[in-house]
Amino acid sequence: ARREPPTAGEQSWLERVMQTNAGGNERTFIAPIGMARRDDGQPVAGSLGQAEVHVSRARTQARQWQVRLTGTLTTLAVLLISLLLALHVSRGISAPMRRLAEGVRALQEGRFSHRVTEGSGGELGTLERGINRMAAALQSGRHELRSRVDQATVELRSTLEELEVKNVELDLARRRAIDASRSKSEFLANISHEIRTPVNGILGFTRLLQQTRLDNEQTEYVHIINRSATSLLGIINDVLDFSRVDANKLIVEQVDIHLPELVEDTVALLAPQAYEKGLELVCLIYSDVPSWVRGDPVRLRQILTNLLGNAIKFTRSGHVAVRVMSEQDTAQRATVTVSVTDTGIGIAPADQEHIFKAFTQADSSATRRFGGTGLGLFISDRLIQAMGGKIGFRSRQGEGSRFWFTLSLDKVVQVDTPPPEGLGGEPVLLFESFHLASLSLRHTLESWGAQVTETDSIPALLEAAAARPPRVVVLGLPAADFDNGAGGDVLSRLSPLELPCLVLVNSTDRALHQRVRNAGAAVCLPRATRRCQLHQGLQDILRGIATPGPADAGESTPSTPAFADMTDRRLAGLRVLAADDNRINLHLLATLLQRHGAEVERAADGEEALEHLRHGRFDCVLMDVHMPSLSGTDATRELRRTHQNASTPVIAVTANAVPGEQERLKAAGMDDSLVKPLDEEHLVQTVLRWTGQTRDGEPATQNKPAQAAPEVQEPDPMSLAMLLEDLPAHRDAMLAALGEDDLEQAVHYAHLIHGSAAFCRLPQLREAAAAAEKALRQPTPAPERRRRADALAQEIDRFIASHLGAASTTARDGS
């Protein structure tokens, strides 16, 4: 059957469009339709019809275009919907992100009060809340920081104000420190002047006394007084030197020193302290030690005195030994080691680290038991460093200590006085119970050329003395042996042999020495005696001068000539003016000059000195620096301006040994200066040099002070008489000046009384004068000044009454 193509009504609009535009896209195929083949395979004749196939592509293309259009429209719809969804979603994300960015920017700009709107969910909401919390924390932190800054600012302002106050206080403290330093210097200068003035009198008259005829005992006493006074002068120098040590301004002198004599003098000075405790004290100076070196004798004495004094102080029993050895020796220099060994309490290991610190002792109980400030080793350490040496120690607690110091010193070529000829080759029999003293004695005797036979026991000594009698027997025994009779028994057993015996005992008691001589000894000396004394004793025995028995109270020391023999006339023909407000010093100065032939005029102050100079001519003027009304410097300036003696040499006499003093005196017009205490030879040489009477341009070196010694207990009668004569006038003048509110004059007279009382060893009067002088010098209230002055006046009255009463009693008893 024929099927017709779809009609226009049955076609879609797209099919109709496609069919209209199809054109050659349609085809029609027509084919006849015949019979089928028979069973035998032969075709059947005939035709059944024809088949017509109409093929058109329009419908297919229409369907294709429909599918395409539908797909396109669907895609566009999906895209549109997606775009709308994307816009919606992006609008929900970008807005919060913008808010977050704005919040972060606000935080970055420091606007911590800004907050992000919290409208999102999920992570964005968490982030919004986190940023808001962070902003709140930052805002709170800013407020806290600002409050802290404000508080810190307030505190800083307060601190700045306090700092300004502190700066003002520091400035005031600095000024006070400068004033205190200046006051310290003035104090040192004043104390130096105050003590040097009486020491000048002590040393001067002691040296005059040494040049008179004295017996042996008197000579020894005068020698002790002289050493004590020079030791006191050494202490004064220590007071000045400590401040220099502390300020690193210590000056070390370089003068010629006889080293063995310096060591022996120091040991002999401290021997009584050792012997009072029953200790053995020995000094060993080896033969290779140079005799003469260059150094500072005051410092060496100070160091050795300190080390030896400590050894004696901290040793209860046993011995103390001083050794002087030469470590290295060349033609020009020698390295010398001085050691002090004791058998004392020792030093604990824990205390050895700070032994050289100031104001320190190894054990606080030692301070209570033995005394002392602990300053000595500190000063010694500094002094040794200043001299370029080393100091050290070794110690074991309970077994003793060994302190030592080493110095490299220049050697000096000097000619030592040879020993007497009579000692050379003489046989000497020696027994010394203390082994170290025996070693030292044998070494010393052999160095003098003696033939020494040493024994180790008393029986061996007696046997050797009987078998081969020596010229001298040297016997060293403890002082206890003469208390229990053993020593006297030995001398009595030696007596039949008629051998002169020199006995050495560990004692300086002259009563014991006399007992030993009464027992049969020709000479008795302390074991720690100086070698020169030992030498003199042996010489006296060999010459037959020293014999056993009581000493002749009137005998003179062989080596001490009469007073007149020591004087000379080198100053004869010179007219000298001496000015000093201290009568004792003025008397000493005039005596020293007159002893050498000078004609001396005396003046008690600067005004009186100028008056003498107006009416006469003088070859030289010796002017004390500190005098009332017109000081020595002011008097010299006045002299240089107007007087006929304007060109006369003026030599200052001062007790101030502070730096810069000589420059100040020369600036005032003085030509030279002498420091109290005066050395007689130095005084004479200085006067000769400035008066043109000698060609020797350099004065002799002044004697250097030694170290600590006991002070002289009693003044000489002449000084006491002068003091009793002057005190009433000084008292009245001081009170009158105080009543007129003239503090300068009141201080002057209190100063005079203080110095005189110190010189005459009057402690109560000295303390009262010192208190009055201090109150008058310082800004003390007027009632306190008056009270101190009245107390001094009462002490003067008491002193005068007691001494005048004692004098009257003595006069009545004598009559």
List keywords for this structure.
single chain, alpha/beta, seven-stranded mixed beta sheet, 23 helices, disordered C terminus
Helical content class: 40-55%
- The gyration radius over C-alpha positions equals 58 Å
Oligomer: single chain
Question: What is the residue-mean pLDDT, rounded to a whole number?
Answer: 77
Number of strands: 19
- Quick one: biggest sheet? 7 strands, mixed
Total of DSSP H or I helical runs spanning 4+ residues: 23
In words, what does this structure look like?
- The termini are far apart.
- This protein is of the alpha/beta class.
- Helix content is 53%, strand content 15%.
Brief overview:
This protein has 815 residues and is α/β, with parallel strands linked by helices.
Q: Strands, helices and their partners?
A:
Blueprint: H1 13-20, E1 26-34, E2 47-56, H2 58-108, H3 122-210, H4 216-246, E3 255-258, H5 259-276, E4 280-285, E5 292-295, H6 297-313, E6 319-329, E7 333-342, H7 364-370, H8 376-386, E8 390-396, E9 400-411, E10 427-432, H9 435-447, E11 451-454, H10 458-467, E12 472-477, H11 480-483, H12 486-494, E13 501-505, H13 510-518, E14 523-526, H14 531-542, E15 575-579, H15 583-595, E16 599-603, H16 606-615, E17 620-624, H17 632-642, E18 650-654, H18 661-667, E19 672-675, H19 680-691, H20 717-739, H21 743-759, H22 763-777, H23 782-814
